[in-house]
Design a protein that fits this description.
mainly alpha
């Protein structure tokens, strides 16, 4: 079922990516890279795995973000992981699928290319295990309406925002080490140009609010609520802190995700929740998108 309105691209001012229509083989070669690029990929995978073996890394980064005023709470790792399941399943997944459809981008082929180009950009469900360079690659590689969430994550790394600005300058001048893959992956033709405005704006005012989700972007009120709730780190962590979640819930949740994305996708079946936990969302956002929801009167 189509969730986004036919005017999605007009609302977001999207333009076609420059690489559409090129040979699939050429597009694959773009993301394979050479010795330097693949050395970077291997090092980033090692850093990611090391971080995942040290859950304290997540709390340290969250505490830094809290001290900088980017969030109000520090949820448990279990709460954060369940929230990441909800974010992926009920916001990013549905939103991105329809965006790719609107842009004429093949879902499976493009995501495989993204993985080959820089695996760690697709390995971290919440971004808090990611290194500075993985977050920067994700921002440069993938269309964001407003990259506030990821720019906030960069604030948790010393010198992260300065490095973001430096790599964006490299990309703009055509001299980024991963130039070929970044040019071949970005899903919106004007996105990198918009980053030239958004990144300096965020550096000048790190507490700037994420842009509102445009009205009428989706026909699904629950999807609109999910996109609004998860548009920034403050919303994500606030949502996570309201969840009842422990390690057993995490194991069950990700087993359901694996099924839903494999056999469930083939047979049209879905295990687990069908929408995000509305009671964990900000009441003002629930009132905006689901004004009759029982949680507003409970």
């Amino acid at each position: 079922m189509r969730l986004m309105t036919p005017e999605m691209n007009q609302i977001q001012h999207n333009t076609p990516p420059a690489w559409l229509g090129r040979s699939p083989w050429a597009l694959v070669l773009d993301v394979i890279g050479g010795w330097r690029e693949n050395r970077d990929k291997v090092l980033e995978v090692a850093r990611m795995l090391a971080a995942m073996l040290r859950p304290s890394v997540v709390r340290e980064r969250l505490e830094r973000l809290r001290s900088l005023g980017h969030c109000d709470v520090t949820p448990t790792l279990s709460q954060l992981l369940i929230a990441s399941r909800d974010q992926l399943s009920f916001s990013l997944g549905a939103d991105t699928r329809e965006f790719y459809r609107a842009q004429g981008i093949p879902w499976i082929f493009h995501n495989l290319r993204r993985f080959v180009a820089y695996p760690t950009t697709m390995m971290d469900p919440m971004g808090l295990f990611s290194s500075r360079d993985t977050i920067i690659q994700h921002i440069l590689q993938t269309f964001h309406r407003h990259a506030t969430y990821d720019l906030v994550l960069l604030s948790g790394h010393e010198g992260g925002l300065d490095e973001m600005a430096r790599q964006l300058d490299e990309l703009s001048s055509g001299h980024h080490p991963h130039q070929r893959s970044l040019d071949s992956l970005v899903e919106d033709g004007s996105y990198h140009q918009r980053l030239q405005q958004d990144v300096p704006e965020f550096i000048a005012n790190p507490l700037i609010e994420a842009r509102p989700i445009p009205d009428g972007l989706s026909q699904s009120a629950h999807l609109m609520l999910a996109m609004d709730q998860f548009k920034d780190v403050r919303g994500y962590t606030s949502y996570a802190s309201r969840l009842q979640a422990g390690p057993d819930d995490v194991v069950l949740a990700f087993a359901q995700v694996v099924f839903n994305e494999t056999l469930g996708e083939i047979f049209g079946l879905r295990l687990g929740p069908q929408t995000l936990a509305v009671q964990a969302c900000e009441p003002a956002l629930v009132h905006r998108h689901l004004p009759q929801h029982p949680s507003l009167t409970s």
